Amino acid sequence: MGGDFISYELKEFKLFEPLFRWARKKSIWLVAFCTGCGGIEMPPLVTARYDIERFGMMPNPAPRMADLFLITGYVTPKTLKRIIITYELMPDPKYILAHGSCPINGGVYWDSYNVVKQLDKYIPIDVAIAGCMPRPEAVMDGIREIMRKIENGEADGWRRYRENYEWYRKNQDELFGEGWRERDAKRWLAWL
Amino acid sequence: MAVTDNEVKNKVESTQKAPQDTQNAKPELPNTKEGRLVKELLEKAPYAEGSVRREKRIEFRVPAERIHEFLEIASEKFEMLMQISVVDWLKEGEFELVYQLWSVSESVHAFVKTRISRENAKMPTVMDIWPVAETYEREAHEFFGIIFEGNPRLGPFILEPREYEKHPLRKDFNTLSYVKTIYGEDFDRYDESKTNYVI
Amino acid sequence: MFEWKLALEAIGMVIYATFMGFIFMGIERKAMARIQRRVGPPIYQPIIDTLKLLGKKESVSHGFIYDFGPVFALGASIAALLFIPLANFQLFSSNADLIVVAYLLEVPMLGIMLGAMSSGNPYSAVGVQRGLLTMVAMQLPYGLALIAIAQYWGTFKLNSIVALQQLHGWSITVPALLLAFIVFDIVFQAMLGLEPFDIITAPAEISMGPMVEYGGKHAALLFTQHAVQLFAETAFFAVLFLGGASNLLELLIKQIAVLFIAIFIASIYPRFTIDQAAKFFWKWPTILGIIAVILAGW
Amino acid sequence: MNELMIMLFAPLIAGFIAWALDIRGIREIVGVIGAAVPLGILVKYYPTITSKGTEGIVQTINVGGFHLVFQLNTLTWYFAVIASLVGVAMAFGMASTSKNSYEWLFALMSYTGVLGVFLSGDFVGFFLFWEIMTFASFMMVLRRNKHESLKYFVLSIIGAYAMLIAIGLLYAKTGTLDFNTIRQALYMDAMIGSISRGEMALIFGLFVTAFGVKAGAVPLHVWAPGAYSEVDQSYTTFFSGALSKAGAYGFLLLYILMGVKLVSALGVWHNHMLFAYIIAWIGAITVVVAGFLAVLQEDIRKLFAYSSVSQVGYILLGLGVGTPLGIIGALFHVLSHAVFKGLFWLVVAALILRTGKTKFEDFGGLAEKMPVTFSMALIAVLSLAGIPPMAGFASKWLLYEAAINAHMPLVAGAIFLGSGLAFAYVVRFLYAVWFGQRPSDLEDVKEAPLPILIGMAVLAIPNIVFGIAPGLVTKYLNGLFSEPVVTGDYFKLVTTNGTYNALLVTILLVFGLAVAGIVFIYGAKTRKVPVTDTYQSGNPVTEDYNLSMRRHFYRPLAEALEFWLRYSWDRFYERLAGLAEDFADTLREGIYNGNVQSYAWYLAIILLILALWGVL
């Protein structure tokens, strides 16, 4: 996976870049993938009271079409495997919004054997919002923050992930052990 | 869910223990539906002690070697086995297994408790009464290391391969040192002693 | 020999149709939001979405057929559009008739299926299966409605149907064709993949159905195709039942009216499962269609 | 004039030579030449046929007291060319798939049989070649599967006897066996009415069963799936491509010989000719029933067998409409079906030759391994599904026009449903065989051998050529009728109230593809991704997962239809066969019980009856 990934040259459309940035800002699609305890905070966002669709945002179940990945709450190693795979499936300008303190330093489960202490080691986080679990207003504030970053080009989590992919890959393999994808897939084969 | 049960049981257990020791005679049972149920079961199983905690909630304390027999008797009335939760009494060196039963007909909740020693804890399986017990026993085995004879699939269940056979929910499992070995340098809380946690 | 005027007209009409198609999709999302008392996205939101998808810096492909699918679908939609008489632009409609346009409107389905199948994703396989079954189920009522029209007006040419409707009044004024109108409206709901029949891309069940593997510019192609298809199908509906139009504005009003019927039905009904949809299509719409056909032939 | 004879018997002679020589290399060459000779001669006759009008060339030979007449006019030339085109493709196909000379002998014998059926001008030759054709195809099926061949044999025998009785009745009434004289006699008889209505209905019924068996109309289609799939698949190209057309030709013969008489005898119902209306409804039911059965099949050969039965249903439907436009639509569909179905059967032959598998669940992901066969299959798929630039659509369009103009709406509805089903089972074939995950044992599959690819090319080119320029066929078919039915130039079909400009549709499709291609190239660079890199809701995926749904692809449809699927024609015929056997057993115990006295008694009784009848 890593080999050809780096040599890919980014086709920078200089002329249309401001137009695309505006379009990316105005239409962010969420991956419908809720990790941890914050998942239940997502539905209020699409209801009549908060309605993120005003900003052109739409929950989208397919990662291939999505841009924003909401990490809502603590991340266990098992979920982190799914997050990494889904994140790598998403096409390129992609952003991550982390909820609460658990993704930053393990939060309440700081000493639990089963929670990833620092998510930023494994996937690049663009914006982190406070609150255990943040209310929809806080999530909307986070989304506005992401929009501001996209507008002036700071939201470059995906570029960081691509440029130092080796480092991220090393941390992941360190946590899960080398070749964890095949091993995990073989383990699930018994169930199919 | 095992973790939360643990604290709740501790507090309830300690408060409830005090009054029972004072009147060592059998506490008289209120003649409500629950009381009659307990009386009925106690006649069939004299070795057990039963009490009514509150409306819709009754408790039994059964010695470990007679647990299977008692559960067979209880299963006529209590059709569903809701959960097998385990309490780790480190100081007394015992595990306390709580079989939570639910009777659909009388809509009453029964807690059947037994005590077994912590070292190489062994229990007969109850899969022959309630097949669903297989999952609860696998979980109890994975997190506490209790071996249930007769359960065919006691092996790895939910946890990551790294934590197999480590039985992480035991009281003597030192999570702090384990986490330090795995997450190493980015684990930034340095206070060793467990008394004053720094969050 | 090559009529430049016709060529320019055609290209202009394709651009106009794509733009209006996106606006229709925007209206669709906005109306559904307003019905749920939400503010809803701006009308031109689909244009922004397509721009964003086109602006993606990377797009994944599962082989030649995977790329060929959406391209073929968009091509077929554009071809279908150019055979429908749009208001005062006759374009190429003198060279094709009812049956050719009806089939050309179904060809994009094959393009999407081709692409979805070659992506090797189980969700898209289930989406393809459901899409085909819906298409099979709706084929009979769809055919019966078209036959009723062809039989009543006695001709297949679309522009002569429009002319006859200008003379004798719209198709829906005729009782037989009113039944055909109802049948075609139900089938129209399934062709657009709107609520009661959106089994094809059931968002919760099989994450976007056939489109699950499409990202970046492939998804942009599919969005443009859906826009052109929406415009073409609403125009086809207006031409057949609401008597065509003398100018584009009148056509636009009729198209939006037809769209709102579909939106109102879509925002009320839950989703059918696939065999319920098949049974439903072969029960009521087919019976109505048979009655319409017999009445039209009388 | 003996070229007619050369053309007729060339395949048979080539078959014998190939069977006698039985050397791997030479046998194929002889077979291919034998198959190509008729096509060559027929093409040579094209100018004479188009210039001479409908009565064409007549050749008479008398063999053993029988006076056989062979005629080559516009209609018979059309059918003969289609049969020989499919025959050549079959020969190329068999060059790579047939293992022994036994199959060459009987394949080419059935080829002669079909040509004989089309060219014969009188009932003697017609029946003779009809039997050769049936016998040869029965021997092909017999070699592989006894049960299926028995089923095919019994039904063909029923058809043959029905035709024999009908010919006998006609001979009794008209005194001749030659087609032209019968036509005049029945034409005259339409006014006089000497043949009663009941007799005419009986003759019509017998002919319908005879030709219905060969064409595979619904009640009599039971043999088709078994026979088509139990034979070497490249022979099925000819079996379903040309032999089923003999049945359709038979129905057309009914129109030519006794059309007027049937109308006067059986009358008219809601201004449709009653006998034509019956044929139309047989066709419609065949289209729908065989279409639904084809969609639910698990075996690749069974799917295309039922699809062939369904497509022949279209032809019967076209003939049943009765108007000149309907007949032209049916004849065009004869050509397009022979071409795209032949292509499908060659693709299936290549698949079975290379993978040795026939069930859908064993296939998968062959698009990369057999690219040429895949592109041929794609052409066939587009044509069968009726996608505008292909021949399949042109013929289907004509059928729609005819059915709706003739005020037969429900029959047109059956065409709509049938084409929807065709679309469904064709895409199912595409998905199950060419896309999705490749099972591990298909890794070393190579491309199909060259001869069969040539055969596919022979059948793919007409698909595209007649798709883009359908006028070629309709202009030729207009010759059948006095005034041209389908006007318009080579690329545009103009009927009384509908037009279809095939070239313009193709140009606009290309224009649309160009616009979409520009949008596609404009986007970011694409990165090829292996099959394992798919969204499986986050789970890691490896090669040995089976991610593609190849079994029971249309289970929901089966659930929606389970009320109708309880009844099956096969079980009905099995029970019928069982009844017949029991009856025969009881008869055997009863009469032939072996003791001589009862035989003596039977003799006495028969003599007594004859005496009373006054014969003695």
Task: Please outline the helices and strands.
The complex is a heterotetramer of chains A (192), B (199), C (298) and D (616).
Chain B: H1 2-22, H2 33-44, E1 49-54, E2 57-61, H3 67-77, E3 80-89, E4 94-103, E5 108-117, E6 122-124, H4 133-144, E7 147-149, H5 175-183
Parallel strand pairs in B: 2-5, 6-7
Antiparallel strand pairs in B: 1-2, 3-4, 4-5
Chain C: H1 4-35, H2 45-54, E1 59-61, H3 64-81, H4 98-104, H5 107-118, H6 122-153, H7 158-168, H8 175-192, H9 216-241, H10 248-268, H11 274-281, H12 284-297
Helix pairs in contact in C: 1-9, 1-10, 2-9, 3-5, 3-9, 5-6, 6-8, 6-11, 6-12, 8-9, 8-12, 9-10
Chain D: H1 3-21, H2 24-52, E1 57-63, E2 66-72, H3 74-97, H4 101-119, H5 123-144, H6 146-174, H7 179-192, H8 197-215, H9 223-229, H10 233-266, E3 268-269, E4 272-273, H11 274-295, H12 300-321, H13 324-355, H14 371-385, H15 391-405, H16 409-434, H17 450-468, H18 471-478, E5 492-495, E6 498-501, H19 502-522, E7 526-528, H20 555-560, H21 562-565, H22 569-590, H23 596-613
Helix pairs in contact in D: 1-2, 1-4, 2-3, 2-4, 3-4, 3-10, 3-13, 3-17, 4-5, 4-10, 5-6, 6-8, 6-9, 7-10, 8-10, 9-12, 10-12, 10-13, 11-12, 11-16, 12-13, 12-15, 12-16, 13-14, 13-15, 13-17, 14-16, 14-17, 15-16, 15-17
Beta-strand percentage of chain C?
A: under 5%
**Unreliable segments of chain C (pLDDT under 50, ≥5 consecutive)?**
none
- End-to-end Cα distance of chain D: 53 Å
Mean pLDDT of chain D: 87
Total strand segments of chain C: 1
How would you name the oligomeric state of the polypeptide chains in this document? heterotetramer
- The largest sheet of chain D has its strands arranged as 1-2
What general outline of chain C do the C-alpha atoms trace? globular
Radius of gyration of chain C: 19 Å
Task: Please count the helical segments of chain C.
Answer: 12
Largest interface chains and counts: C-D, 92 and 77 residues
Q: Specify the structural class of chain C.
A: mainly alpha
Radius of gyration of chain D: 26 Å
